[in-house]
Write a structure and sequence with these properties.
Blueprint lengths: L1 E5 L10 E6 L12 E6 L2 E7 L14 H10 L4 E4 L54 H5 L1
Parallel strand pairs: 1-4, 1-5
Antiparallel strand pairs: 2-3, 3-4
């Protein structure tokens, strides 16, 4: 099952066939919006609008932990995330689609891990390397 966290303009539920909505709660609170369950070309998918369907959540206020937890609870094996952002390379123009292998995160004010040792967190404190932040197999596909 593929989880899709859609960013601005890339969260249209019409991409899913036979869709249903599911509102959930997590140990981290509510995700950005309802989970939209359906299929794309016979593949089970779960779509979540990162900023909410009415685009009311600022980037620094997105509850990333609740979003990831909700997709995990829906048994998503992979998560595809879209984002609209700038580039440090002039040859990459607005509208280009790029599969990245590294990033610089300038989002502030939000929790950055599910492993912070707090009551609602996964157990323990975990140091997760960011030298290769994306799944190599998924990027190859």
């Amino acid at each position: 099952k593929i989880g899709i966290i859609g960013g601005t303009g890339l969260d249209d539920p019409d991409i899913l066939e036979g869709r249903t909505e599911k509102y959930v709660d997590t140990p981290y609170g509510k995700p950005s919006d309802a989970l939209i369950l359906g299929k794309i070309k016979n593949v089970d998918c779960v779509l979540l609008a990162r900023h909410g369907r009415h685009h009311t959540i600022m980037p620094s206020n997105v509850n990333y932990r609740a979003n990831i937890w909700a997709l995990k609870e829906e048994n998503c094996s992979h998560v595809l995330v879209t984002t609209a952002c700038g580039s440090l390379r002039e040859e990459i123009q607005p509208g280009d689609l790029v599969i990245i292998d590294q990033f610089i995160d300038r989002t502030t004010k939000r929790h950055c891990t599910l492993y912070d040792g707090q009551h609602s967190s996964l157990s323990g404190v975990c140091h997760i390397p960011m030298s290769e932040p994306f799944c190599t197999k998924t990027r190859e596909v």
